[in-house]
């Protein structure tokens, strides 16, 4: 056999190996983008009123709807409804921009939750910095969704209360953090919901003489797409560490606060997700 034949065979082998690697990469991207996982977690707390024992919360963020992914959108909403949650919390960035966020709430099927559906805003959900969001709020209201912008919603069962505080977006909004005079009580279960995990700094750091975290039991954020943009954030950290979130993804705990940073459910902006699976969160609260 000639050296020419051996060289040709080696080239063909390398091309085939390269093709297999590319195929596996494309396949892993497709699976990572479209295989939505259900993250189920039980949280026990003495602050939880007995009436709320076994209450189920569903959290989903970063839908990044672009108008061309309706099938995936309907599939995700179906997954949320199949969980039969008592409370659904939506974590912002419903569209890839303001117009698509409006379309999102016009196009989605109804989201069902026995005790209510609440939502916060992400940077994609405003037309420009500090812009009004009246049309978006009305679109949510038409779907029986309660938008929380620096305000809280109280859910009552018998003599027990859960309070959900929704903070405004940190990029295009005007966030007002819970303070020690907010009126929350130690025996209430308080949920802090926002889009950007930058909010973690505000609930963990002390405010005045007392730590704000003493009022918070559970905090939920999206915004990082599971650390998908961690590379760019690490570059920013080299210049200003205060610009990066404390956590990129997953469950954490600090100053007695259970903290979730979700991978989100969408992957259209940017259109790439590799080995970071989309998530819908099922959280079951238990009286300890």
Characterise the protein shown here.
It is globular, with a radius of gyration of 22 Å. Helix 3 (98-107) runs parallel beside helix 4. The protein is of the alpha/beta class. The protein folds into two domains: 1-34; 37-287, 4-Layer Sandwich (Purple Acid Phosphatase, chain A, domain 2), CATH 3.60.21. The N and C termini lie far apart (76 Å). It is 28% helix and 25% strand. The mean pLDDT is 80. It is built from six helices and 14 strands. The protein has a six-stranded mixed beta sheet with strand order 1-14-2-3-4-5. A six-stranded mixed beta sheet has the order 6-7-8-11-13-12.
Write the layout of secondary structure elements.
Layout: H1 3-34, E1 37-45, E2 55-60, H2 70-82, E3 87-90, H3 98-107, E4 116-119, H4 134-142, E5 145-147, E6 151-157, E7 160-166, E8 189-193, H5 199-204, E9 206-207, E10 210-211, E11 218-221, H6 230-239, E12 250-254, E13 257-261, E14 279-287
Parallel strand pairs: 1-14, 2-3, 3-4, 4-5, 7-8, 8-11, 11-13
Antiparallel strand pairs: 2-14, 6-7, 9-10, 12-13
Helix pairs in contact: 3-4
Describe the structure using short key phrases.
Purple Acid Phosphatase, chain A, domain 2, 6 helices, six-stranded mixed β-sheet, 288 residues, alpha/beta
